[in-house]
Each structure stands twice: as C-alpha cells, then as structure tokens.
Amino acid sequence: MVAPSTTAGTGRVIIALTIALVTLALIAAAGVIYLLLRARNSTHWFFPYLRDLRRQRRQQAAFAAATPPPTRHIMLCICDHFEPYWRNTDDTLADERVTRWCEGFPAMAQEFTDADGRHPQHTFFYPEDEYRYEHVERIAGLCNRGFGEIELHAHHEDTDVEVYRARMMAFVERMHSEHGVFPVHPETGKPAWAFVHGDWALCNSRGDGTGCGIDAELPLLKEMGCVVDYTLPSAPCDAQTRKINSIYYANDIPGQSKSHDTGIDVVAGRPGSGDMLLVQGPLGWNLKRRKWGLVPRLENGELTGMHPGDPQRVDLWVKTGVSVVGRPEWTFIKLHTHGTVERDEDALLGDTMRRMHQHLADQYNDGSRFALHYVTAREMYNIIRAAEQGKSGNPGEYRDFELPSPVYHERQELPLSAARQQ
C-alpha cells in the first residue's frame, strides 16, 4: 500500500509538470504568433486591431437592437493605382492596357446599378511619372461617359521639397488645363484632387526610407491642392499605420516621418481640420480564409486575381464598418487595385467582378436594410464632408457637396498613333 504522503507528492509533481508544459505551450504559441505577425509587418497594428474588433461588435449589436433598424448606406469606392507602364516600357503594351479598360469596364459596369441608378465607378489614380497625353485623354473620355474619375498618383524619391513641388504642380496644371480632370475648389479657386502615394510611402513612412524622401509631405500636399489621401491600408508593407479602419485628420510632426501614424477621427456634426484627411480601407485578419488551412489571411481591401471580391470578403468589408464617428449607418468601403496587371483582368473586368457586383446587389441594395452607392474618390470625400457638417439621410444626395464634378474638355477621339504626337 502506497503511503498517503507519497501519493500526494506524486500528484503535486504531476500538477507542476502539467502547469510547466501548458506554460511552455502558451509561450511557444505566443512566439509563433509573434513571428507570424512580424513576418507581415503587423505587430504595431495588432493591438489596435483587437480594439477595433470590439468597436465592430458594438456597432453590429447597435444595428441589431435598433427599432426600427436604420438603413445602412454602403459607399463603395475602388481606387486604382493605374499604371499603364507597370513593369513595362513598351508603348504597345501600355496602349493595349488602356484600351482594355476603355472597352472592358463599360461592358461590365453597365450591367449593374446602385440605389441612385449609377453604374459601378472606378477611380483612376494616374501616375505623374507615367504621363502620356493619349492615355489620359482616353481614360478621361471613359470618365466623361459616366464610369469614373481621374485622380493623382505619384512615385518619387525626391528629398528636395522644391523639386517635388515643381514636378507635382506642373503635372496638376497639365491634367487640369489640358484634360479638365480635376474640379476647381469653390474656396481656393484652384484644382482640387485626391492622392495615392506610390510604393505606399506617404510621408516618408517606409522603414528603409525609400519611395519618398520628404517627412513633411502632408502639409506640402495640402498646399498643392490635395484634399484627401487614399493610400491606406498599405499592409503588409511596413508603411502601414497604427491607426486602422478609420477616417481621420493627421497633422505634420516637424522632423518626424509617418506623421499620419495617428490622428483625430472625423466626427459627425463637428467640423474637423488638419494637414490631411485620410480615408482608410478595411484592414484585419480573415479567419475564414487561411493559408495552409491554418494561418488567417490578411484582409487589406486589395482586388487581384488571387484575392478577388468574393461574397465572403464583401461581407467582411461591410462588417468592418469604416465610418465617420457618430454616423455608423454610412459605411465607407475603400478598395484598391493595380488595374493594368494582365493576370488580374477577370477579377476586375470579367465574370469574377460581375459576381462581386451581383452579391452587392442581392445582399446590400434592398432599399430597406441596405442601400448601395457606387462612388468615386471625390464623391466619397464629399459625403464624408457632408457628415462632418451634420448631414444625414441618403448620402447619395451629397456626391457633389463640396467639390463639383470635373468639367471634362471637349475631345476628339484619336487613334493612339496620332494622339501620341499631341
């Protein structure tokens, strides 16, 4: 017969070993999670993401408890880093890419309409460093037919502020005077435009210092006529900010890069101010899409052939609920893509994109629980500004709230070979 003291001692040893094994397992699991987060440059926004999940749950609960439930208005904006010369220096291939959009987008988009009777919209953020007269003319013609608008995109490594300013202002003037693609701001009388930074490096935000070179970029952009930035999210790039799933104002911090890492949320009925308004797309982890069946995939609102806008992702974007504080029933979904990449053609212009729009029509445009609004970057900006001024109800009424539609110049469609001589 085993002595009671011996049995008790054995039990304590087993308990101690169990605790030690569980502790080691938890430490190992935490280590694996940390390495996975670090591999995706997401350690700095992981805890903000956990806090944002609580916001999402509270928001969903409030919608469910409301009697009667409010109509949720879904603003969908696709921001295209539109680069005809993406990984290419051949004019013929660039011409084919522009032609593909001018022909393919209307063919797909005209099959769908939103709650306002508008077809899907596409915002072409055209790169300053790839300017070609004939390409802008053709895209402007597409926009003039009601299928989108053109905004500004730039890649640069300038460290000299004056050099950068001169380049950008020359480009803005040419786009405005020769093509009429930017509206005139009613207060300043100057062209107003939205911006996407090349290589995600807004405000010199990349860890290795590449892709920008100017820390104080936010006030400089504002000075030049930029009214809103749509660069984010940039994850998994290390240029991603700690602040996520937000619409906010950021101010320059003298002597510091990545000044937009934090900022002040836009609040309904409370006019805001800052060096730059930033509108972020959805960012988080998609627990229903897993790499190797184990690791949740990053959700950053990107549209590609590998990451198409399937129904599950659409539902996740809506659930993320990016909104102006105090106006949660207006949901802003900002997506991004590089539209000229051949392998992504079906995801953007083909049946895969048609399925995304069909799901939006079936689930988020019943006129009661949901109303869908296809918007350009300018229109999304205007609706946000309307919320700042306390506007409510149907956001479709505020597409031109502050900035009017651009007045496209009269143009004659030219063959590309002839237009290239302009």
Structural classification? alpha/beta
Rounded average pLDDT: 91
Q: Could you describe the largest sheet, including whether it forms a barrel?
A: 7 strands, parallel
**Ends: how far apart?**
103 Å
Number of helices: 11
Overall morphology: globular
Low-confidence stretches: 414-422
Give the C-alpha Rg: 24 Å
The helix/strand series, from N terminus to C terminus, equals: HHEHEHEHEHEEEEEEHEHHEHH
Written description of the protein model:
It is built from 11 helices and 12 strands. The protein is of the alpha/beta class and 422 residues long. Helix 4 links the parallel strand 2 (122-127) and strand 3.
Topology:
Layout: H1 4-39, H2 43-65, E1 72-81, H3 91-109, E2 122-127, H4 133-147, E3 148-154, H5 161-179, E4 193-197, H6 217-224, E5 226-229, E6 247-250, E7 264-265, E8 276-279, E9 284-291, E10 295-299, H7 311-320, E11 330-337, H8 345-349, H9 351-363, E12 370-374, H10 377-388, H11 416-419
Parallel strand pairs: 1-2, 1-11, 1-12, 2-3, 3-4, 4-5
Antiparallel strand pairs: 6-7, 6-8, 9-10
